Amino acid sequence: MSTFPAPKKFPTWPHILTALISGQDLTRPDASWAMGEIMTGNATDSQVAGFLVALRAKGETVDELTGLVDAMLANARPLSIEGERLDIVGTGGDRQNTVNISTMAALVCAGAGARIVKHGNRASSSSSGSADVLEELGVRLDVPIDQLADVLESANITFCFAQVFHPSMRYAAVPRRELGVATAFNFMGPLTNPALPTASAIGCSDLRMAPLMAGVLATRGIRALVFRGEDGLDEFTTTAPNRVWEVRDGKVCESTFDAVDIGIPRATLEDLRGGDAAFNARIVLEVLDGVTGHVRDAVVLNAAAALVAADFEARGTLAERLEVGISRAERAIDSGAAKRALEAWVAATGSPA
Question: Is 80 annotated as a binding residue?
Answer without folding.
Answer: no
